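R.M. (postdoc): so does anyone remember the format we settled on? I'll just put the structure tokens first.
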């Protein structure tokens, strides 16, 4: 009996942290994958994925397409059944002009959606959003947790939070205005703080907190809380949102229970202290963080999060998609080991 060829999935920004794990998860589940990159000549950025596809015997190719131009997107979606739009700018510091983030995020999302809607083959788009599009700039709930019914208050947002909120809102508005005969299925995945093992030797913005704890670039720990989620489980969430008949038209928060950075540090100290890593675990007062942030643009991003627990509910993803995430301690240990294995952190001398 002849077998049908596997469905092809487009993953945008394939060299990125979340996108790379999406590519890996899709290949492991038998899909053919096409990834967009800014420059196909820079093969070193995706060499790890090419090697993985060869190991698994999977189909993987790359095409050039950028968020800031229409060129390449029609070719990128051609023949694809699904699109995972993961690419979005996420710099480690606040830009001088918020449009450096907002415009590529919004315009790039609309470029991908227009190309998908014009395609004869694309059935569903899964958009990677962020907890920054749900909980930013608004008070924490007096009881319970933020859900998919919540939206960040743009007027109170940082540039990154604004870019993710406006991009997702633009996507849903575009989807609602599509003519019925061109109506795509669409869903959004909303991760908390994404950590987990690196696929190549590059520290990502979302793994920066673990990196700083291990290299002691912070002498103490600010009182900051995140809803941590493992990148491998975020990748699974994208695939489930792509496959599930319940997913179209829905947003899905994918995040674990909130954890204070000091508790993250204690996990790492217990695991790696015996191996020579002196992980800081004492509290960093707000005034000290504020002073350090004057000279460190990455720390400047953290000031608005001090003292606020990040309260997110993943109940909908669990109930409708059957999604789960592994314990935060396991994610932290795997993240740390990955940084060590890639030579990005070393024990204290």
């Amino acid at each position: 009996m002849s077998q049908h060829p596997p469905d092809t999935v487009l993953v945008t920004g394939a060299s990125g942290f979340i996108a790379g794990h999406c590519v890996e998860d899709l290949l492991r589940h038998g899909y053919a994958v096409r990834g967009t990159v800014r420059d196909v000549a820079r093969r070193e950025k995706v060499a790890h994925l090419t090697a993985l596809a060869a190991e698994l015997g999977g189909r993987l190719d790359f095409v050039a397409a950028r968020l800031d131009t229409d060129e390449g997107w029609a070719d990128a979606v051609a023949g694809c059944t699904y699109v995972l739009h993961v690419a979005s700018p996420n710099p480690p510091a606040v830009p001088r002009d918020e449009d450096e983030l907002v415009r590529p995020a919004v315009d790039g999302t609309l470029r991908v959606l227009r190309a998908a809607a014009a395609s004869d083959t694309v059935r569903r788009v899964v958009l990677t959003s962020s907890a920054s599009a749900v909980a930013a700039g608004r008070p924490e709930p007096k009881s319970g947790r933020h859900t998919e019914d919540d939206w960040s208050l743009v007027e109170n947002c940082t540039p990154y939070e604004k870019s993710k909120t406006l991009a997702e809102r633009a996507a849903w508005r575009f989807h609602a205005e599509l003519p019925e005969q061109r109506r795509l299925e669409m869903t959004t995945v909303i991760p908390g703080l994404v950590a987990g093992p690196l696929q190549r030797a590059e520290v990502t913005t979302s793994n920066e907190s673990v990196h700083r704890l291990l290299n002691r670039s912070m002498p103490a720990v600010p009182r900051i809380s995140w809803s941590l989620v493992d990148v491998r489980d975020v990748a699974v969430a994208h695939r489930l949102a792509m496959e599930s008949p319940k997913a179209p038209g829905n947003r899905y928060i994918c995040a674990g229970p909130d954890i204070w950075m000091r508790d993250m540090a204690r996990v790492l100290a217990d695991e790696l202290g015996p191996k020579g890593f002196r992980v800081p675990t004492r509290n960093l007062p707000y005034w000290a963080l504020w002073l350090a942030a004057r000279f460190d643009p990455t720390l400047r991003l953290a000031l608005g999060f001090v003292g606020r627990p990040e309260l997110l509910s993943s109940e909908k993803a669990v109930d409708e998609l059957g999604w789960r995430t592994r314990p935060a301690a396991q994610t932290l240990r795997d993240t740390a080991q990955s940084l060590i294995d890639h030579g990005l952190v070393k024990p204290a001398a």
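R.M.: ...and that's the designed sequence above, right after the tokens. Also worth knowing: The chain has one domain: 8-341. The radius of gyration is 20 Å.
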